[in-house]
Amino acid sequence: MQALHFLQALARIARAAPKPAHSARTRQIRHAAYASMAHSSRSSRRTWSRALLHRLRQRQQQRPGRLLTVRRRVRIVTPITSRPEEPARAETLRQLVPGGRGMEYCNLLEETADYVQCLRAQVQLMQTLLDAFSS
Amino acid sequence: MSSRRSRISEEEINELISKLQSLVPESRRRGSNRASATKLLKETCNYIKSLQREVDDLSDRLSDLMAGMDNNSAQADIIRSLLSS
Question: Contact B44/A93, CB-based, under 8 Å?
Fold first, then answer.
């Protein structure tokens, strides 16, 4: 399902006329990659996929830029000082996994494992497409 | 009451740590069963960052590929027919 969604998005991008500039098309492809990950049947019930979709939609309404910029915005989340039992580096992980800041530590690990699997599948899919179409 | 709850959470956390260990390449190679959580989290962060960089790079290369499609109409026709939905 992740592959099908991505291929359909690629087809839309390929059919676009007039042809976009290289950098714009790269952004569209990257957007499609993360959208496909978030829409895959395994992940659609995950917090990270909902957070990612939200971020993608916000991105579409603004001028294009880096997709995974850390947003400087006041958020009401549990502050770090109230999580003394977490190992170091959990905070970095929270920033990397979409929606990670609001998660309980246990959920964070579970979401991370799922996110990593989807990321890996997406990378393999894109590499396969590149290999298949460039000769 | 609170100690029972924390024991269940600790088991779950250990399971999840094992799962993450099996997913992250560096941890698998080392083969240690007692990799510290901190080290595993650090490797997981590095792995996620490298995967995200790969998505960026592959997006760029796919964009190159699509740019070149119009120049070779036979190849472009094949690709379009495969991608059409």
Answer: yes
